[in-house]
Amino acid sequence: MRKPNAELLQFGMTYQVLARKWRPKGFSTLVGQEHVVRALTHALEQQRLHHAYLFTGTRGVGKTTLSRILAKALNCETGITAEPCGVCRACRAIDEGRFVDYVEMDAASNRGVDEMTSLLEKAVYAPADARFKVYMIDEVHMLTGHAFNAMLKTLEEPPAHVKFILATTDPQKIPVTVLSRCLQFNLKQMPAGHIVSHLTNILGEEGIDNEPQALRLLAKAASGSMRDALSLTDQAIAYAAGPITEVAVRGMLGAIDQSVLVRLLDALKDGSRTDLMAVADEMAERSFSFAAGLQDLGSLLHKIALAQFAPDAVSDDWPEAADVRRLAEAISPEAVQLYYQIATRARGELGLAPDEYTGFSMALLRMAAFTPLLAGGTLAEPPTPQAATRIAAPAAAPARAAAAPSEPMRSAAPAAPAAQPEARRAPAARTSAPTDGAGAPMSPARAALAALNAGRKGTGGRTSGGAGSTGSTAGRNASRPADDAPAGADPEPEPAGTAPASASTDSTATPAPAPRACVYREADGNAPVFTGEWPVLAAELPARGLARELAFQSELTEVAGRALHLRVPLRQLADSATADKLRQVLNEHFGGDVQVHVELGQVGTTAASLAAEAAAARQRAAEQAIADDPLVRELIDEFDAQILPNSIRPVQ
Hints:
Blueprint: H1 6-14, H2 18-21, H3 34-45, E1 52-56, H4 63-75, H5 89-96, E2 102-106, H6 113-123, E3 133-138, H7 145-156, E4 162-168, H8 176-179, E5 183-186, H9 192-206, H10 212-222, H11 226-240, H12 246-253, H13 258-270, H14 273-285, H15 290-309, H16 321-330, H17 333-349, H18 356-369, H19 385-388, H20 420-431, H21 444-458, H22 464-468, H23 470-479, E6 521-522, E7 528-529, H24 534-540, H25 545-552, E8 555-560, E9 563-568, H26 576-590, E10 595-600, H27 607-628, H28 630-639
Parallel strand pairs: 1-4, 1-5, 2-3, 3-4, 9-10
Antiparallel strand pairs: 6-7, 8-9
C-alpha cells in the first residue's frame, strides 16, 4: 500500500479555509450586526444577563460566531466582560471547540424528546471548569413538538449557572411559548459594501492581488452571507491560480458580462430585434444562466432608473457608470420601468416556460413588442390628453384627420391662429359634460363619435372645420388628379347660406388651416363613401383586436386613389398582418378593394385622442358640477368636509 506524501499531509492538516481562519474572535472584530453587538455589549457591561438568547437570520451571518463570542465573554478568566481576552484557557478552549462547559448541539440530528431530556438532566449540574454552562442549540426550529415541550420549564427558570443560546434560520417554526422565553435578536444580511471591504482586508493580509470588480461579483453572489463570500473567495483563489480578476470570477460563477446586458438594452433602444435575439443566442452558446441574466438585467435597469431620477446617486466607482448615464438619457423613464417589470416577472415565469431560453427570449420579445418607438428608432413620449389635442402645423405637414369640433366661425371676427386649438377644444368640453341620469361611461369609440357629432350639431350638420376650410379643401381637391379620390366620391355641394372662406378672412391674416372635416354620405347603390374624416370611420368600423387599435390610434395622412396612408405611433401597430386585417374590414365596409399603407411617426388627431379628450372634458365637467352643487357646498361649509380626489365619475 502506497503511503501518502508526508509533506502534503502536513500541509493539508495545517491549512484552514478562510471562513474558519478569519472567524471573528470578539465583538470588536465582528463585521456588521451592529444592533446586536450594541445590545449584548451593554448587557455585559451592566451585568444584565438574560438566561436565554435566540439568534435568527439566514446562513452565514454570524449566529454561531456570536454564540461563541458571548460564551467567551461569560467565561473569560478576566471576568464577565464585553471584550474577552482571547488568550486565557477558557477563551482558547472555546475557540478550539474543546471547552467542556460550552456545548453546541445540532437540533437537526438531535431533535427528539430523548436527546432533549438527556441535555436537561445534565444542565442541573454545576459547570466543571467555568463560570457558566452554555448550551448552544443550532437550527432549533427542527426540534419536535415534544422536545420543545420538554424544555419549556427549564427554559423559563433555568439554574443560575446555565445559559441557553438558540439559533435558527426559520423562527416562524418555533412555538410562541419558546419565543416568549428568549431574548430575540434578528441578524441581518450583510451589505455588499461590508463584504467587499472585509474581503479586501483579508486578501491584503493573505497577500493575494485582486480587482475591486471581482470582489463586488463575489459579494453579490454571496447574497448577504459572509461565510458564503469567504467560501467563494477560497474557490476564486483556486480557480484564478494567481490574482483574482473580474474575468476569472465571471468564468467561475458563470456570471454575465455587463457589456452583454448593455448591448441588449441598446438593441431594445434601437428597435433592432435581430440584434436582440443575437444577444440571447450568444448567452445560450456561452451557457449563461438566463435566470441570473434577468436578475442582472433588473439590477442594471434599477441603476438606469436611479440615474434618471437621482443622477447624483450614480457612483463613478461603478464600472458601468458611463453606460448607465448614456442609457438613462437614451431610454425614456416609462420604458425603463416597463423593462424592469417584465424582467422581474419573467424570472418567476421561467419555470413555466418550455425551457429557460424560450422564457428568456419571450421576455425580450415582450419588451420589444410593448416599446413605443418612432420611425427613427427613438422612444416616443407617452401620449397625454393635452399633447394629443395640440395641432402641429409644419410647413410641409400632410393633411390631418378630423379634429375635435370647434366653435362656429364668424365672418366678422375670425379667431386668431394661435387660439384655434383652444377653440377647437372648448366645444368638446361642453358637449361631453355629464347629463342627468345614471348610465355606463362612454366607450372610446362612442366618446370620439360624440365629440365629432356634437360639433356638427352646433354648425348645422357640419363641423366648423368643414365650414372654415372649404377653400383649402377645394384647393387640395383641385391640385389632386381626378383619379386620386376614392371611387364614387363626388364633390360635396356647398350648403346654402355658407359664405366662402375667403370672405371671412379678407381683413385678417390667413390662419393655419384646420384639419379637414368630412361627412359620410350615401352614393349610388347605398354604398358608403369616404370623404376623409378618418376618426369617425375608425370609430364606426366593426374591427376587433389589433386591427381596431390600428384604426383607432392612427392618423390619415394621404388618400391616393383607393389607397389609404396611415401613420401610427407604435411599432407593433405597423405590422403588415394587422394592416391586412384592417384592409379586409375596409373592403367589407366599402364593398371594394381598398389598400392600406402604414408608417411610423408622430400623430396628431386620432379617434383615440378625441376619445381621451372627450373623457377628460366630461370628467372636468362632472367635478365642476359637483363643486358647484348647492347641497355639496352647504355640506362643505357646515361640516368642514372636503371632496375626495378621484371619487367623482361622470355619468352618461
